[in-house]
Fold this protein.
Amino acid sequence: MSNTQGQQSNYVPNVARQKAYLQLLLLLAIALISFIVALTSGSLSLSFSEVFSAMSSDTNQLHHQVVYELRLPRMIHAFTTGALLALAGALMQVLLRNPLADPYILGISGGSAVFALIAIALGLVGWMVSASAFFGALLAMFLVFGLARGQGSWTASRLLLTGVVLASGWGAIVSFVLTIAPQGKLRSLIFWLMGDLSFAENFWPSLITLAIGILICLYFARSLNVLSLGAMQAQSLGLNINRFRWQLYVIASLLTAMAIIQAGNIGFIGLIIPHLLRLMGLRDYRLLIPGAVLAGGSLLVFADTFARSAIEDTALPVGILTAAIGVPIFIFLLYRGVKSV
């Protein structure tokens, strides 16, 4: 009887693990499909064979240029940005123990937006706008952490309250910049605020940041599982709560900053993707981390492809599409009563 019970107890985790691996394979397949859709869709429709031919040779110069210079870089930008946001959202939710936590909740995007909008309004372009946005994100990160800590140790609730208050302050400055900005710059400013991949240039920094972020998060996966049980239980199991929270905050902030540099403010991906994965049963962070990367990246690739090809000769801000997708999904998640962490 005892042997039978032991076999059954071993069988259940194995079945759950196999199901999780199948779900990751499904997410990988969806990511590959999103790549194909992104490369074949647009004002110039290409078949899969034409895309493959354009990537393997340059006999058709137009197809080669469209694929290599336009669609492939934008697809990589979209995937890395979505993956960065989903990964940062997963970290923020376990850090703050809050179901509404997302990469922007602590005001990182506000500081980045202020300095990026000032740079755009002054006529700066390219890497100068990215550098300004990154500086603003770092400034916001240190302000939130420093003010939340005060003269003693900080808690997740103090961090959250400080971030929300500073985010309101950054929002007021953004409104002021929009008010005094030249009319000719308003369209660029508004598109950046709504989320737009047209500003992205070199995808290597975000790709390298994503790779490093994945490795670090996988290294911390067991500690993330422990922290998700609750602060008291995690501390009783030997986890240094204060130091680990500080590490999570810095990592999530840097991932968010790089995503903002790429595409401005794109909402809902960092909020809904971790919830969806937990609904699927991926609660172990060793599985949730790669799942978040695949799902977040795929979602933004699909959204950006639709945004640039839905209306002829017009590219919509991709943030509009992610909001349109995210709102009904989040309402569904609330209806199902998904746990936050």
User: Anything to note?
Assistant: Residues 2-40 form the longest helix (39 residues). The chain has 14 helices and no strands.
